[in-house]
Amino acid sequence: SEQGCLSVVVLGASGDLAKKKTFPALFHLFAQGFLQSGEVHIFGYARSNLSDDGLRERIRGYLKGASEEHLSEFLQLIKYVSGSYDSKEGFEKLNKKISEYEMSNKSESTRRLFYLALPPSVYPSVCKMIRTYCMNPSGWTRVIVEKPFGKDLDSAEELSAQLGDLFEENQLYRIDHYLGKELVQNLLVLRFANRLFLPLWNRDNIDNIQIVFREDFGTDGRGGYFDQYGIIRDIIQNHLLQVFCLVAMEKPVSLKPEHIRDEKVKVLQSVNPIKHDEVVLGQYEGYKDDPTVPDDSNTPTFASVVLRVHNERWEGVPFILKAGKALSSRKAEVRVQFKDVPGDIFRCKRQGRNEFVIRLQPSEAMYMKLTVKKPGLEMATEQSELDLSYGMRYQNVKIPEAYERLILDTIRGDQQHFVRRDELKAAWQIFTPLLHDIDAGRLKAVPYHPGSRGPKEADELSERVGYMQTHGYIWIPPT
Ligand code: BG6
C-alpha cells in the first residue's frame, strides 16, 4: 500500500552509501512527489554524536545543486538518533521516536522501512535489534539490505538463516542496484515482447554473449574493503550475474515477481562449474600501494570468466562475464554476437558478425551491427549500426537512478527487482569453488597497466571461446 504514514530509517546514516546513494535517492523521490511531507519521516541512525541539524547539514552537503525549495522542506523531515548497532537503549530510543511520530500523524495505517546502509558484519545484530524493539505493531515492516551477502556459499547461507529467523522473505529486500537500471529492466521487455528476437535467441543463432563492466578508476580509498572481496564478489557474482539471468532465462509464466525469480533460479542452476582454463584474473599495477591492502595480495581487480549453460537453449554458447577496475573507460554492456552467415556469397565474414549491443551505461543505448552495402557505385559491404540511443530517442525523459526506483518498489511491496534467498544461494554455488581456489592462491592474478584494456590474456580467452573482434573496415570483394 502507498497509504499511511511512513517512517524510513537509514541505519549507517553517516556512512558512504547513505551519503552517495540513500539520501540522494530519498530526496529525489521527495522532490518528485513520491514521498510527501505530511506522511513521511526519515530517521538517521548511527554511532556518531550528532544533532538533527548536524545530520541535516551533512545531507545538504551531499545534495549540492538541488533546488532550495524542495531541499529545506525535505531536510525538515529528517531526525537523528545516535546509538551503537547492538545497543538496546539505542533501538528503544529509535522506536520511541518512530512511535511518537506515528501517534502525532494520526493516519490509520503505519509503515516502517529500515535501510541497512551498513557493513554486513553488523546485519545480524541490527536485524535482531529491529526485530526485538522496532517492529511496527500495526502495519508493515520491511528491511533493505545491501551486498555483500556473505563471502561464499556457507557464509551466505549462514547469514540467510540468521535473517530468515528474524524476518519473513517478503519483509527482506536484498538490493542489487543493477536491477534498478533502466536498460537492465528493459531486458525482459526486449526479449519477450519482440517477435524479432524470439526465434534468434538461442544456440542455433548466437555464437557468444559478453557481459562486460569496466570502470576507469581504481579502488579509490576502498582498498581495505575491496581486498577482502575482489572483483568477482564485488561485481560479477551479483551485478553481472543478474544481467546474465535476464539475458539467459526462459520466459516466465507471468510478470509476477515469483514467476520471474523462479526462472532466474532455474537458469542459475543450469550453469556448469567454471573451468580454470576459462578464467583470467588481473590486478592493476599500483593496487597494492594502498596502505590498507597487504603487500602480497592476490585479490583480482579484473576478472573474465566463461559461464557454460547446460540446457537446450544454450548448450555450447559461452557467456563471457568480464569486469575490471582502473581500465581505459567506464562502460557496462551486453554484447550478443550472432553466428556467421552460412554460404556467405559476399565473403564479409572477416569484417564482422551481426551483433546486438545493449549499453547499460553511460549513454544508454541499444544498437545492432549489420552488414550493409557501402553506399556508392561499387558493390562493397561495410558494417553499420541500427542505433537506438536513449539520449536521442528519449531526449526529454529523465532516467531515474537505480536506488530511487528500488526504494519506491520497496515502499510499494514489489520484490521483482530484488534477489530472493534461493537465487542468492544458486549464485554462490556457481562461484564458490572458483573463489576458494583464488583465495588459496591456486589461481593467480596477472598484472595490468591502470588505464589499459586489462590483461591481454582476457582478450585471448574471449577469442579462444569464439568471440570475433569486429573491425570497422570496408571490404571490397575481388572482381
Ligand atoms: C558497487 C561496487 O556495487 O557497484 C563498486 O561495490 C562499483 O565497486 C559500483 O563501483 C558500480 O556501480 P555503477 O552503478 O556505478 O555501475
Number of strands: 15
Gyration radius over CA: 24 Å
Q: Give, in spatial order, the strands making up the sheet with the most strands.
A: 14-13-12-11-7-10-9-8-15
Strand content: 15-25%
The helix/strand series, from N terminus to C terminus, equals EHEHHEHEHEHEHEHHEEEEEEEHHHEH
SS class: alpha/beta
Mean pLDDT: 94
Give a short account of the largest sheet: 9 strands, mixed
Total number of helices: 13
Q: What ligands can be seen in this structure?
A: 6-O-phosphono-beta-D-glucopyranose
Domain Glucose-6-phosphate dehydrogenase C-terminal: 188-466
EC number: 1.1.1.49
Pfam families: G6PD_C, G6PD_N
Keywords: Carbohydrate metabolism, Cytoplasm, Glucose metabolism, NADP, Oxidoreductase
